[in-house]
């Protein structure tokens, strides 16, 4: 809003940060709270009032308001309001000292948040060790008030150290080198790993999960941490391999690990050509081939269901990975919900012509179960070309059954022009 008052212009600007599409690691089209965090932001607004007299800013007042509240378990919330004011003092032809003393080349930077993680600094290792020694002192005869503050500082230091330093630190704590009462400090350290949310913590969490040393809430904490790690690197993806190899014993962790691969691929579009990503998808694909069989027992069917869900979370489905999944969809005698899950495994996948053709073939096959055909249709239509849509609609919509009605209703909403062209 702009208001003119003679030589003065008053401009007011308002922004609701929930509408920013690039406010998080991936784009979002709708305004809503960010639920992938322990304390999501439910309100975030900024308001600025600028007064300009004859081309000079004479007064700027900005107010930022943020409200955060726990995702679960509490009705309390935190409201923070910050007011900033800038007033014109004097006019001068000389450059301010802060600018005139600048040396070197200036770099142009965007005001958008940089999602790249900071480089790991080995010089932070002594600081991290010292902080955990201080935590040890504060917990020697109970837990003092300053303990939470020190643990928080230690977590910040842990985010900056290399992966090997984290492993060495864990060994020192377990050996009693950092603290004589190692049980208590080890418990705090192992819990804090889940809150680092950096690639250097992934390997430690995977090792703990696979070794079956976790118990109680820490297992769920590590699974959630894998889901929420925002900036995984290729080294972290490689560290996930034992979870995929042992997905039968750790299905929930494998689902989280697959989501972490998907997060990596969102930031690295060429991820499917990288060996750790490709190997992770191939491991799950081979498991589908073994588990999805009519002769398999109930346990194998449950394992196949979890494996297919993990593949769906991962979203890496090149043709060679997809072949066992498509065979699973077409195999009679396999549980119907497993075959539907096989179709839904394509939900995050890129489009491959060969995969789309196979999905279309299953969707128009009248000998297939209704639910499997509908799931195949929904998976195929996302990547279908004009000729694929023509085949789907011309062969399915005339059918006087469940799938025919489903396709007809779907096309009336999404592709009405094509439906009437075919009919």
Automatic annotation (TrEMBL):
One of its GO terms (molecular function) is lipid transporter activity. Residues 1-410 form the Vitellogenin domain. Coiled coil: none annotated. This is Vitellogenin domain-containing protein. PANTHER family: VITELLOGENIN 1-RELATED, VITELLOGENIN-RELATED. SUPFAM superfamilies: Lipovitellin-phosvitin complex, beta-sheet shell regions, Lipovitellin-phosvitin complex, superhelical domain. Keywords: Disulfide bond, Glycoprotein, Signal, Storage protein.
């Amino acid at each position: 809003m702009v208001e003119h008052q003679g030589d003065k212009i008053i401009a007011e600007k308002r922004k609701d940060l929930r509408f920013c599409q690039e406010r998080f690691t991936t784009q979002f089209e709708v305004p809503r709270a960010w639920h992938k965090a322990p304390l999501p932001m439910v309100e975030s607004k900024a308001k600025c009032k600028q007064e300009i007299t004859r081309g000079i800013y004479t007064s700027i007042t900005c107010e930022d308001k943020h409200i955060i509240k726990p995702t679960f378990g509490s009705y309390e919330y935190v409201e923070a309001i910050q007011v900033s004011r800038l007033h014109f003092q004097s006019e001068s032809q000389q450059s301010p000292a802060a600018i005139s003393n600048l040396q070197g080349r200036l770099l142009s930077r965007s005001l958008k948040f940089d999602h790249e993680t900071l480089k790991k600094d080995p010089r932070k290792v002594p600081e991290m060790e010292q902080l955990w020694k201080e935590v040890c002192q504060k917990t020697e005869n109970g837990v003092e008030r300053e303990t939470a503050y020190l643990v928080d500082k230690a977590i910040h230091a842990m985010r900056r150290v290399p992966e090997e330093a984290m492993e060495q630190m864990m060994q020192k704590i377990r050996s009693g080198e950092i603290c004589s009462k190692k049980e208590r400090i080890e418990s705090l350290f192992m819990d804090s790993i889940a809150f680092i949310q950096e690639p250097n913590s992934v390997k430690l969490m995977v090792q703990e999960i696979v070794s079956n040393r976790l118990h109680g809430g820490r297992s769920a904490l590590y699974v959630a941490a894998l889901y929420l790690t925002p900036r995984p690197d290729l080294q972290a993806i490689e560290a996930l391999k034992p979870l995929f190899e042992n997905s039968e014993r750790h299905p929930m962790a494998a689902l989280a690990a697959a989501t972490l691969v998907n997060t990596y691929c969102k930031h690295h579009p060429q991820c499917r050509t990288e060996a750790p990503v490709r190997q992770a998808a191939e491991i799950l694909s081979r498991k589908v081939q073994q588990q999805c069989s009519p002769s398999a027992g109930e346990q194998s069917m449950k394992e196949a269901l979890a494996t297919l869900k993990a593949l769906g979370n991962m979203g890496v489905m090149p043709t060679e990975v997809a072949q066992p999944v498509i065979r699973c969809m077409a195999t009679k005698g396999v549980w119907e919900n497993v075959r539907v899950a096989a179709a839904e495994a394509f939900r995050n996948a890129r489009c491959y012509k060969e995969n789309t053709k196979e999905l279309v073939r299953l969707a128009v096959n009248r000998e297939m179960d209704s639910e499997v055909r509908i799931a195949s249709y929904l998976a195929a239509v996302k990547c279908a070309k004009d000729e694929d849509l023509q085949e789907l609609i011309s062969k399915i919509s005339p059918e006087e059954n469940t799938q025919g009605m489903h396709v007809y209703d779907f096309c009336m909403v999404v592709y009405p022009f094509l439906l009437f062209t075919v009919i």
